[in-house]
Amino acid sequence: MKKYTMALSAGLMALSPLAAVADSDDPIVIPIHNWSSQIVMSNVVGQIFEQMGLNVEYVTTDSQAVYESVRLGDVTLELEVWEGAFGASFRAALEKGGIVDVGDHNAVTREDWWYPMWTKDACPGLPSWEALNDCAALFATAETGDKGRYLDGPVDWLKHGKERVEALNMNFEVINAGSAAALWAEIGSAEADKRPIVVFNWTPNFAEAVWPGEFVEFPVWVDGCDKDPAVGPNPNALYDCGNPANGYLKKAAWEGMEAKWPDAYAVLERISFTNPQIAAMAKLVDVDELEPNEAAEVWLEENQAVWSGWLNG
Predict the structure, then answer these.
(1) Predicted confidence (pLDDT) at residue 13 exceeds the cutoff of 60
(2) CA 312 from centroid of its chain's CA atoms
C-alpha cells in the first residue's frame, strides 16, 4: 500500500489551500446499505477522508429512510442515490430542505425486471413485457401456483413490483428477496439447468459480466408515472411504466457539510464513479469475497489516477 499512501500525501498537499477554515474533528457519518457497490464505495470515500486526517463513522441505515437522516444531519452524506429506487425519497427530502444535491456520477443506471439470456430461448418474444406475460406459466412455482414468479429486491428497496403487476394486469406474483445475495443465488441456481427466471437486477453491478441478460421492456417511463394515474397506459393506476432506462446516480449531503467539513465537501463534489468502476467494486466483494474495507483498499491501490484527481481538483 506504499504507493497508495504516497499518492494520498501528494494529493493532500494540493488540497490544503481549498478552505480557510479547517474541517471539524467531529466524525463524518457515512451510511451503509445492503448492496455491495454502495458498501465498498462508502469505504473507499471513508478511507480517503481518513487519510485527509478526518474522522469517519459508518452506520447501517435503511436505504429509504437515509434521506431524512441526511436532511436532519444525523448522517452526513449519501453516495449512491439511484433514480429508480430512491428518486422519490430523495426528491421528498429536497422539498423539505436540509439536504443538497452534490451532483451526478458519470455512471448511468437502470433498475428493473431482468432475465438471463437462456430465459429468452424459452420465451422468444422477450424483452417485451406482454410476451413475458404470455409466458407466465414458465415461471410458475409451488409458491405462486398458476402465476409466474417474479423475484423482486428486498422490501426496503421499494421497487413497486406488486403495483406494476396490478396496473398492467400481469399474471405474476411478486416475491421479495431478502438480500442482493439471494438474487445472485437465484440466478446461479437457475443456471445449472437453464431454468427460466425473471428477477430484479440493476446496472452497474458485477452480474452483467457473469450472466449476460436483458431488461424487460415495459411501457416507457414518463415523469409522473408514479404520481399521476393519467400518465401511462392504464389511466386508473400508478406504476404502469418501466423504470428510467438511463437513470441518474447522484450524491447527496447534509446542507451543513460544506461549512463544517469544507475540504471533504470539495472532494465529494469531484467524486464521480463510472459504470465499470462501480461494477469492479461490487465484484471485489460478490465474486472475490473480500471484506468491504479490504475491497476498498484494493480499489484505491488499483485506481490511484482516478481518486488523486478528486484530491487535486
Answers:
(1) no
(2) 27
Question: 10 Å Cβ neighbour count for 12?
Answer: 16
Farthest-apart Cα atoms in the chain, separation: 67
Same domain assignment for residues 93 and 10? yes
104 within domain boundaries: yes
Tell me the residue range of the domain where 93 lies.
Answer: 2-108+247-312
Q: What is the pLDDT of residues 216-233, one digit of tens each?
A: 999 999 989 988 999 999
**Phi, psi (rounded to 5 degrees) for 35:** -140, 150
Supply the mean pLDDT for the chain.
92
Instruction: Say yes or no: 101 and 23 in one domain.
Output: yes
Same domain as 127, residue 210:
yes
pTM of the complete model: 0.81
**Per-residue pLDDT tens over the stretch 189-248:** 999 999 999 999 999 998 888 899 999 999 999 989 988 999 999 999 999 999 999 999
DSSP output for 35-66: SHHHHHHHHHHHHHHHHTT--EEEEE--TTTH
**Beta carbons within 8 Å of 103's beta carbon, 6+ residues apart:** 250, 251, 269, 272
